[in-house]
């Protein structure tokens, strides 16, 4: 006899409930993102300091983060540590209290250690709109590639990414999809590709540097990159690694923890790997510095991650040193 949704919730551990709620909340954030786009007034601002590269923020970023944080805290009695990209948010009336029964169905596969996790044990990293440069492309005179826009909710435990939700509001035109992964448990929402006809490496479309170019050239020389694709958003790049690309390379410190926590958990749950450029794990403690100062290197399931690490030139690795965890909570 199958269980009802409420019965599945009642028998599930905190982590499974958190991920199941995050999946549905990410979809509510996606609805808000679409509504802002339909309205047409994105209210674009540049968050960067004078002299720094442009860092675009829109009303969709601000409103999506608000609903994510408020919905999660309401669902879990304000017990969560949530770190989001946007310091300033825009209030919206909606709260999402639903949950994904597909995620709750993973409960029996959850490792025993994960079943014992409590709210105070986790850090939730939120990027409400990853790929803002594409979302706001029309404001800069070009047609947006909206399939590259994602909502990211990552969950870290003992400093490591263990669960991730990646929602695509514009997966196929107006159609959306939500992909969820829990480490050592499974992935739902897509079919993972682990056999490759060619080595496709995805990299940044908007933040290229000399180090990025040098890393890509080194991979081509080592016969680890037959084709390069430049796309936006860490979430979309990792989805590409699950659906046919072999690696994602970003030899720069422009990526943040909220960009990589959810995608890393999703990729690892599928059998892939995500580290910094030198092969070091990325730390997701509440008191860690937000930039991924060592860059990002991700490889698809069945791909030899070390071969990509070893091919990155030493001077590129030296340019991207690991920054230690800071001592005060942020």
From TrEMBL:
Keywords: Hydrolase, Lithium, Magnesium, Metal-binding. PANTHER family: 3'(2'),5'-BISPHOSPHATE NUCLEOTIDASE 1. The lineage of its organism: Eukaryota, Metazoa, Ecdysozoa, Nematoda, Chromadorea. Belongs to the inositol monophosphatase superfamily. Its EC number is 3.1.3.57, 3.1.3.7. It is an enzyme of class 3 (hydrolase). It comes from Panagrellus redivivus (Microworm). GO terms for cellular component: cytoplasm. It catalyses: adenosine 2',5'-bisphosphate + H2O = AMP + phosphate; 1D-myo-inositol 1,4-bisphosphate + H2O = 1D-myo-inositol 4-phosphate + phosphate; 1D-myo-inositol 1,3,4-trisphosphate + H2O = 1D-myo-inositol 3,4-bisphosphate + phosphate; adenosine 3',5'-bisphosphate + H2O = AMP + phosphate. Its cofactor is Mg(2+). GO terms for molecular function: 3'(2'),5'-bisphosphate nucleotidase activity; inositol-1,4-bisphosphate 1-phosphatase activity; metal ion binding. This is 3'(2'),5'-bisphosphate nucleotidase 1. Pfam families: Inositol_P.
């Amino acid at each position: 006899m199958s269980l009802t949704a409420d019965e599945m919730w009642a028998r599930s551990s905190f982590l499974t409930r958190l991920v199941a709620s995050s999946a549905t909340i990410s979809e509510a954030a996606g609805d808000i993102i679409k509504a802002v786009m339909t309205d047409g007034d994105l209210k674009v601002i540049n968050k960067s300091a004078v002299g720094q590269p442009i860092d675009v923020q829109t009303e969709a970023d601000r409103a999506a983060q608000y609903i994510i944080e408020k919905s999660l805290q309401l669902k879990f009695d304000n017990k969560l540590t949530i770190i989001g990209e946007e310091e300033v948010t825009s209030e919206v009336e909606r709260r999402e209290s639903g949950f994904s029964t597909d995620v709750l169905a993973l409960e029996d596969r959850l490792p025993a250690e994960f079943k014992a996790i409590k709210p105070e044990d986790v850090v939730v990293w939120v990027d409400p709109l990853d790929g803002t440069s594409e979302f706001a492309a029309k404001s800069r005179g070009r047609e947006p590639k909206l399939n590259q826009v994602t909502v990211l909710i990552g969950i870290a435990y003992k400093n490591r990414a263990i669960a991730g939700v990646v929602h695509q509001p514009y997966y196929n035109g107006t159609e959306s999809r939500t992909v969820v992964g829990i480490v050592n448990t499974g992935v739902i929402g897509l079919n993972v590709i682990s056999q490759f006809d060619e080595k496709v490496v995805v990299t940044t479309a908007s933040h290229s540097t000399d180090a990025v170019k040098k890393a890509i050239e080194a991979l081509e020389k080592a016969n680890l990159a037959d084709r390069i694709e430049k796309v936006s958003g860490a979430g979309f790049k990792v989805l590409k690694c699950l659906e046919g690309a072999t690696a994602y390379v970003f030899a720069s410190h422009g990526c943040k923890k909220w960009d990589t926590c959810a995608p890393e958990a999703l990729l690892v749950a599928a059998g892939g790997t995500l580290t910094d450029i030198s092969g070091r794990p990325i730390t997701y403690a509440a008191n860690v510095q937000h930039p991924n100062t060592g860059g990002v290197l991700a490889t698809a399931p069945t791909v030899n991650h070390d071969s990509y690490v070893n091919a990155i030139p030493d001077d590129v690795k030296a340019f991207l040193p690991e920054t230690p965890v800071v001592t005060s909570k942020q």
